[in-house]
Design goal:
The complex is a heterodimer of chains A (127) and B (116). By secondary structure, chain A is mostly helical. Chain A has 3 helices and no strands. The chains are: A mainly alpha (127), B alpha+beta (116).
């Protein structure tokens, strides 16, 4: 943990060019929305954004290797092909994030409809 | 409720969807986040103060997950708001709104009650 903390500061702000526009979902919102409305709005926006990343393959992998998190030990299949590539790990992480967000949204708002391209993970470990 | 009035800039910018309670609980990370936000906001105007509510175990903290930045003028605040809405912060999409300066000065982050 100490090693992780001593590594160089991570860059948090994205460039102006990385700005994303989600149709119909402004990123500047009225100040008179309630906490609940704001929460629902932001979570819905994140679900849309994750869907966009998964569809376009723009997975948010840092361009500079030093900005990326350390890779786990590689896992290979019987053909010697690496299974746990960064792409695979990012997609899996995004799908898990989206699933968690959708569950939260359905809890806050039973009328919430997940996006069409979302499928709930079928073989999940029981919590 | 007047929808127009609620999008009119004030001197206090509210930045959302940027930080998680876990990140804020870590002292070092909290300091870094404060610096990162202050530095970026200072590009658009003079920042007078910044407030990021932090989690306290077992307590319901108002405004947790939001970042409040007070600017010296409405114009500066509006420039920052326009520039930062939709930007990425730690791969999340930044969502902005303007906050009531009186409530900010009283550190009142209870949010809007109101009807839905």
């Amino acid at each position: 943990l100490d090693v992780a903390k001593k590594k160089k500061r991570k860059r948090r702000w994205g460039d102006d060019s990385e700005r994303t526009i989600i149709p119909g979902m402004p990123t500047s919102i009225p100040s008179n929305m309630t906490e609940r409305q704001t929460k629902i709005y932001i979570k819905t926006l994140e679900v849309e954004e994750i869907g966009r990343k998964l569809r376009t393959g723009d997975l948010g992998i840092a361009p500079l290797p030093e900005d990326r998190s350390p890779s786990p030990e590689p896992i290979y299949n019987h053909e010697g092909k690496r299974m746990n590539t960064r792409d695979y790990r990012m997609k899996k992480k995004l799908e898990e994030q989206r699933h968690a967000l959708i569950q939260e949204l359905q809890e806050i708002n039973p009328d919430y409809k997940p996006p069409m391209d979302y499928k709930a993970p079928s073989s999940r470990m029981q919590d | 409720v007047n929808m127009m009035a609620s999008t009119v800039p004030t001197t206090v910018l509210c930045l959302m969807n940027m930080v998680s309670p876990d990140e804020l609980a870590d002292d070092e990370e909290y300091e870094e986040i404060c610096d990162d936000v202050r530095d970026e906001c200072s590009k658009y105007g003079r920042v007078l103060s910044l407030h990021i509510p932090r989690p306290i175990e077992g307590a319901d903290i108002h405004g947790l997950g939001k970042i409040f930045v007070e600017f010296s003028s409405v114009t500066d605040c509006a420039s920052a708001g326009t520039a930062l809405a939709g930007r990425k912060f730690a791969s999340r999409v930044v969502v902005t709104s303007y906050y009531d300066p009186d409530r900010y000065s009283q550190r009142d982050f209870a949010g809007v009650e109101g009807t839905e």
